Amino acid sequence: MTRPAVTVMDAHCALCARGAAWIARNDHSQEFLIVPMQTELGRTLLMQHGLDPDDPTSWLYLEQGQAYTSSDAIIHAGQKLGGKWRLLTGMRIIPRSVRDALYRMVARNRYRWFGQGDMCSMPDPDVKQRLFK
Questions:
Q1: What is d(CA 52, CA 11) in angstroms, rounded to the nearest whole number?
Q2: What one-character-per-residue DSSP string does 5-54 give?
Q3: Main-chain dihedrals φ then ψ at residue 60, nearest 5 degrees
Q4: What is the mean pLDDT of residues 93-100?
Q5: Measuring CA to CA, which residue among 7, 110, 104, 111 is closest to residue 49?
Q6: Which of 58, 59, 64, 88 has its CA at a distance of 20 to 30 angstroms from the CA of residue 96?
Q7: What is the reported pTM?
């Protein structure tokens, strides 16, 4: 049995909630778990991987014992989802420093640009099935 892919993301962010819904819609093999960063487990996972659980730019993706953050997390999540989402690997042609700077800019402004939400109370049953609190 393979270990699930785990994403640790902000449960209070509307953009992250859309990301969770995107994962749920495209995870046909049901291999992803979504852990809100506000939970004890989420905070612990972030700290174990050198990330600040209070930093709005923190997003963690774990797959087969490997940890990825920022734009690398997006690329690896796309690879795991497969199909057309593997095209996200094309982002690698952009230098990581540029990709991560863009990622941090969006992450720092996500509440202002996309609003707040509550991923944990989303009515989407596919998202609820993947939430691990």
A1: 15
A2: EEEEE-TTBHHHHHHHHHHHHH-TT--EEEEETTSHHHHHHHHHTT--TT
A3: -125, 135
A4: 92
A5: 7
A6: 64
A7: 0.81
